[in-house]
Design goal:
It is globular and about 65 Å long. Strands 1-2 form a two-stranded antiparallel sheet. A two-stranded antiparallel ribbon has the order 3-4. By secondary structure, the chain is mainly α. The two termini are 26 Å apart. The protein has 20 helices and four strands.
Length: 494
């Protein structure tokens, strides 16, 4: 006697309002996370005066978020796979909101740094949301939803900078954090109401030694990379941190291969489809981050430099805004390309478009319209690449490991961005000239930074093309229970 097939999902027309709001609510959470990471940037020049702290101490309001986000993203991703993705996603948004409230209530630099570290937990929002989308959506809707979720990082960053600048310019700076606190409460409520808990779990005991080892190794690595320019790349502190990174991560790797339920399944990572995707994520993160980092400095440079436009922080944010809009518009295109040609082709195409954007930047970085055009082209390529990366991971790992695997992929992007920041800073420091009694980067230094990012983007494209192809790309079949992805069936069968 035939066994009854799986119960088909409710059609969208008959789905309750909560189900229809799942994608918008998760996308709002991703945008909110990016906004929260960006809003402190306009404050950095004034925070020493506002808090009475040194410029070095103030820089930790950015570094603390970077470090905690890098550490917590894979840890919370693994926790989501084991204990429930909706539960962990809600917890991450709650921590982010608590951090925002702390910033709104205090001007003490120690409190601000602690609060910003709490906000770093929100870096796990995107990989957890992507995993929820895989569990909850049918294959024909999954691609576009994942592409939109991936694009929220750039959309939120593009919106957050001008929004924060406007608030800081016309209101007390604490107002900005009260606003983000209210948005955080809205995000927590939206997830609690509209997102149901995924039934896909991976049982086992949480790998506490693995989590602590990864945290220690990442803190040493990212602290050395982010502070190398300030402390000196040859200083004992930086060299000691890099040596500690090698030792700690080697021990962590040894432990992961022997743990019964490891934090990161290194055997899975060693597969070319997964490992090369992580390499491409690191390189793409490097190439993408130089765009907003260099553009913001270049357009704010004094006109006396001969190339600078002397724009305010608000005007700078508006220059980056078209890139955010482009990311929103092009995310559906990315999903269609991935469905037709495969996500590795989309990733390679995105890397090539990023490189073309930097070619535009090298050709002309004096005229505002060319600067905006080049930055927007880079953002377009980033949309294609970032939208393809989680799709590659979803096709390559079992359903019960999607949150942790995407968490590692986001971690690699973060490491790429941190490395990009350090590399760009090193290039600009070595190419300066005196203007008005102060040393400022030369145009040649900026062009070298663009050339470096362009080269890394091309390497990312080569890495993408090296990823083994998926013979089941874009194919589905109809079963008695509904439409299922062949790749999902193969993974479940394995």
């Amino acid at each position: 006697m035939d066994q009854p097939g799986p119960i088909p999902r409710t059609t969208e027309a008959a789905a309750p309002l909560r189900g229809r709001l799942t994608i918008p609510v998760l996308a709002f959470g991703g945008i909110l996370m990016a906004v929260m990471q960006t809003v402190v940037v306009p404050l950095l020049p004034d925070l020493p005066r506002l808090t009475g702290a040194s410029a070095g101490a103030v820089s930790w309001t950015v570094t603390a978020t970077l470090l905690s986000g890098a550490v917590l993203t894979p840890v919370l991703g693994r926790a989501g796979d084991m204990y429930g993705k909706r539960r962990v996603l809600t917890s991450a948004l709650v921590l982010m909101t608590i951090g925002s409230v702390m910033c709104a209530l205090s001007s003490d630099i120690a409190v601000l740094i602690t609060a910003r570290a709490l906000q770093g937990a929100a870096a796990s929002v995107v990989p957890l949301s992507i995993s929820i989308l895989r569990d909850e959506l049918p294959p024909e809707r999954r691609g576009s939803a994942v592409a939109l979720m991936s694009s929220t990082v750039g959309i939120g960053a593009a919106l957050g900078l001008p929004l924060a600048a406007l608030v800081v310019q016309y209101y007390d700076w604490h107002t900005m954090f009260w606003l983000t606190s209210a948005l955080g409460v809205l995000g927590v409520g939206g997830v609690w109401w509209a997102v149901r808990e995924s039934p896909v779990r991976e049982p086992g005991r949480f790998d506490v030694p693995g989590a602590l080892g990864l945290a220690a190794g990442l803190v040493c690595l990212l602290l050395g990379v982010s502070q190398g320019g300030q402390w000196g790349w040859g200083s004992a502190r930086v060299l000691g941190l890099f040596a500690a990174t090698v030792v700690v991560l080697a021990l962590w790797w040894w432990w992961q291969l022997r743990a019964e339920t490891p934090l990161v399944d290194l055997r899975l990572v060693s597969r070319p489809r997964v490992g090369l995707s992580h390499v491409a994520a690191l390189l793409t993160g490097f190439a993408f981050y130089a765009n907003s980092l260099v553009t913001a400095q270049l357009v704010q440079a004094p006109k006396a430099t001969g190339y600078g436009l002397g724009l305010s922080i608000v005007e700078t944010g508006l220059c980056l805004l078209p890139g955010g809009v482009t990311m929103l518009l092009f995310s559906p295109l990315s999903a269609r390309i991935s469905a037709a040609r495969g996500p590795r082709i989309t990733l390679a195409l995105g890397a090539a478009v990023i490189a073309c954007g930097y070619v535009v930047r090298i050709a002309d970085s004096r005229d505002l319209w060319m600067i905006i055009l080049g930055a927007t082209v880079v953002s377009t390529g980033t949309t294609l690449a970032y939208s393809a990366l989680p799709t590659l991971i979803l096709r390559a790992v079992p359903a019960e490991q999607t949150a942790s695997a995407n968490g590692v992929n986001v971690l690699m992007r973060t490491i790429g961005q941190a490395t990009s920041s350090a590399a760009v800073a090193a290039v600009l420091v070595h190419h300066t000239s005196p203007v008005g009694g102060a040393l400022v980067p030369t145009l040649h230094g900026y062009l070298l930074a663009f050339g470096m990012a362009c080269a890394v983007a091309l390497i990312a494209g080569a890495a993408a093309l090296s990823i083994p192809g998926d013979p089941g790309t874009g194919t589905t079949r109809r079963t008695r229970g509904g439409t299922r992805d062949r790749r999902d069936e193969a993974l479940e069968g394995a």
